[in-house]
Structure prediction request, 162 residues.
Amino acid sequence: MAKYDLRLQARELRKAGNSIGDIARNLGISKSSASLWCNDIYLSANQINSLKEKVFNSGIRARLLGAERNKQLRLEKIAKYRNIGSQKTRNLSLRDLLMFGLGRHLGEGSKKRNQFVFTNSDPEIIRAILLWLEKSFGVKQEDVFCRVFINDIHKSRDLLIK
Prediction:
């Protein structure tokens, strides 16, 4: 198609409210050519608002895609390091296990009462603490009393309690 015809098409598309980028893509021309050919065409307020909304919606879509990709990368990294950690801690000595449990209790246990209290929501950590209690102190799982607390802000998510 001759450049003159492309120029006429570009101007018609711009008058219809298309963006310079869309015009360039649709006609297979550069943005600079589309911009040059259409620089004297003024858009109505509605056309400008429509283009702004399109840019905004594209930005939202891109941010959502980026957030989903970042989430996937983070989950893959967590799985990778969990696997490495699992392999490295498979054969802990009793002393290593004792030190692990003491560290977890210092970080997440209660030191105010005359009883053992530990708070965590990760099932793997809870299993590790139960193993620590058994191997380090001879406490059997059946002698452990567990409580589950759900903060009021999470009540709407709770499907088990009626």
Residues 45-88 form the longest helix (44 residues). The chain has a mean pLDDT of 87. The chain has six helices and two strands.
